[in-house]
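Please annotate this fold before class:
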Amino acid sequence: MAVEHVLEVADLGDVAPVPGSRPEMLGVRNMRGQILPVVDLALLLGIPQTAPPGQLLVAEAGGCQAGFAIDEVSMVGDLADPVEETESDLLVGATLVAGDLVGVIDVPRVFAALEGTQP
């Protein structure tokens, strides 16, 4: 995910479920008076989870904000441009970080997919 989309990293905290919501929608969380939708990013991307999410990465794009429930954040910083293509429409590609291939999330496209407006 491009660093310009990251607003904050916090503990997952208390997430209130929303009946009838999509499976990847864990619910909503109050962040300093703002109600924030919380999305299970691994489930949305189809990635098997090894542990329950414990952190919340708050992202913004196009005036929309959401919290992505994730396992952990190892660093926040600029990434090199993607060097590999990926099969997921929700990634702009993948890049090497310390010898590991890391997928780069397309935040605007993720928001569009959640809103049901993705082409």
User: Anything to note?
Assistant: The domain at 3-115 is CATH 2.40.50.180 (OB fold (Dihydrolipoamide Acetyltransferase, E2P)).
